[in-house]
Design brief:
single chain; alpha/beta; six-stranded parallel beta sheet; 44% helix; 10 helices
Length: 223
Amino acid sequence: MPGIFVTGTDTEVGKTYVSRLLLAGLRARGLQFGVMKPVSAGGQEDAIALMAASSIEDPIDLVNPVALNEPLSPNLAAERAGATIGLEEILSAFTILSERHDRLLVEGAGGILVPLSDQLSMADLASQLDLPVLIVSRPALGTINHTLLTIEACKSRNLPLLGIVYSHSSIPVGDASETESPGIISRLSGVPSLGILPHITDPEPDLELAETHLDLATIIKAV
């Protein structure tokens, strides 16, 4: 199944914004994607935003089959809700969406090792879906360690890596770590940078921003 699995080096790094921007850029190039947010914790806003960006009309229960109320790690949110997260429901929804769409963009929750249960992590789900992984990271102090750890976790599980998009999810401070870290990470890991997005105040995806700041050509070749 062609598509992309979007993960982050942490929570609140801009996964949903990058996903929406990517969907806008790819739609402008003639590629239509279905979307999926397999697990949400704290509301379905991200899933709804992805659906709006892709202009699809799939049922929300397929797009976001596991929706938990509390904004916690999925395993803890599920435990507190008296629920258990298994792969069967998610994979069933993924199969149906795969039959409806030629390509899927799947956005994970948090980072790649976020637990879904004591036995399952987001990496296990990514492995089952078998989509190339796009990492969303911050271009800021500390990002080298966070991003290399995410890359190592993916490589150790044989997850295919598409590349890294850096998103200024907070206001830049203007130090060298913001400008130099992406190049250092690519040099050390061999994983390419596919874009560095400026800090934005308008949450709506901007097609010009996608065309200017994302390596859409490389992404299209992978999907």
